[in-house]
Each structure stands twice: as structure tokens, then as C-alpha cells.
Amino acid sequence: MRNSSVTEPPESYLMNAGDGSYSYNKNSYFQRAATSTAKEKIDEAIATVLDIKRVPKELLDEGSPAWNKGKIHYTSTPKEVGDAYKSQFTKDMRDFFNARVQEIVSGGIMAFIVPGTQDGVPHSQVPLGVNLDILGLSLMDMAKEGIIKESDVDSLNLPIYTATPQEMTELVNTNGCFDIERMELTASRKSPDGSNGASRK
Predict the structure, then answer these.
(1) Of 91, 113, 158, 197, which one's alpha carbon is 20 to 30 angstroms from that of 128?
(2) Measuring CA to CA, how many Å separate 31 from each of 21, 34, 36?
(3) 112: pLDDT confidence band, cut at 50, 70 and 90?
(4) Per its record, what are the GO molecular function terms (predicted)?
């Protein structure tokens, strides 16, 4: 027997792009589950491989030649401070390369961007470093006015190292996990006098 009754098909709602009420993002269980899982993995990777809390201990040791008192970066500091930053950067990049080689197939290519400067440029003339130095001076002025504690400034060391092409080449070659196919320095914004970079007296 055939059921002769006619029924209307149920009304359907097409899922749209974006994040509205009928969006795929809001209505897909698998989408939400995948996004949640990926976020957890990304957060975990950042916390372990790119841990910004890994500041060289000697920068916080009052008895160390590398004690970075009153500074938040290695710009315009004694050589020992810059050496401590470079040593930590070397360790971090080694861990980064060792982690990435586990993920990339043999012959695969990886592209990444890091702060850089030309070979032979003093730390005190690297534009990024100059800006961070000015920020540090501003924080010290705030400490002198009692707005913040000077000890808080002493304990703040921004984990940013500006490597040169030569330093990056040495790091890659020493690690041995990758070969450099291409390396470029983006042109820095020119100063009003027409020169590249920045300098301080």
C-alpha cells in the first residue's frame, strides 16, 4: 500500500558565512570542537616553545655584570647585557628549529619573520631598540615620580632580540635541521635626513 497523503518537506535553513545566528560557525558542532582543540594546542605551543617569560637570569641578578638595572632592553647597555640576550635568543631559536623539524616533511619549506637589522649596525642605532629605550626612560621617569616602583622597572626585560643576517645564518647552520633558501631584510623607514634607521647622541 502506498501512503497517498501529501506532506510538505520541513523548512530548512542554510548556514551562512560569518558568525550570525544561522552561520556555520555557530551551528556546526565539529567546527566548534575543532576550533576549541586547535586553540588549546596553539596556547600550549606558545606557552612552551615561545615562552616569553624565559628571560636570562643574570639580567635580574644584582651581583651579575649583566644586571640590567633601570633598563627594559639591551639597547645602550653594557656588552654583558647584549650577550645575555643573544645567548637566550640562540637557545630559543634552537628549540624552535628542533620543534619545527618534527612537523615539516623532508624537503618541506618553512617561512618565518623575525626582527632583524643589518650586519655591523650598533644596538644603539637599531630603530626598534631605540623606541624600546625611550619607553624604558619613560618608565624610569614614572618611577622617579612614584607612579610605579623602580624595582618593577628593574625586573622588566622585554624578550626581543634583533638578529643580523650573519647571526641567523650561523644559527641555522649550527642547528643543522634546515638550509636557508632565501633571506631578506625589509627596508626600514627613512629618517628625515634621508638615512636609514635611527641614531641617538
Answers:
(1) 91
(2) 15, 5, 9
(3) confident
(4) methyltransferase activity
CB-based contacts of 157, cutoff 8 Å, min separation 6:
55, 56, 59, 60, 68, 71, 72, 73
Q: How many CA atoms lie within 13 A of 49 on its CB side?
A: 14
* Cβ atoms within 10 Å of 38's Cβ, excluding its own: 10
Identify the three-state secondary structure at position 143.
helix
Over the stretch 39-61, which tens digit does the pLDDT of each residue have? 676 666 555 554 445 678 899 89
Q: What are phi and psi of 23, to 5 degrees?
A: -80, 160
Q: Which helix (H) or strand (E) holds 176?
A: none
CA 47 to the chain's CA centroid = 12
Cα(38)–Cα(142) distance, integer angstroms = 41
Separation CA 91–CA 84 (nearest Å): 11
Task: Give the length of the chain.
Answer: 201
> Cα(196)–Cα(188) distance, rounded to whole angstroms?
6
pLDDT digits (tens, 9 = 90+) for 166-198: 999 999 999 998 999 999 887 655 444 444 433
Specify the long-range contacts of residues 81-84, CB closer than 8 Å, at least 24 apart: 82/123, 84/56, 84/58, 84/59
Rounded CA gap, 179 and 141, in Å?
A: 46
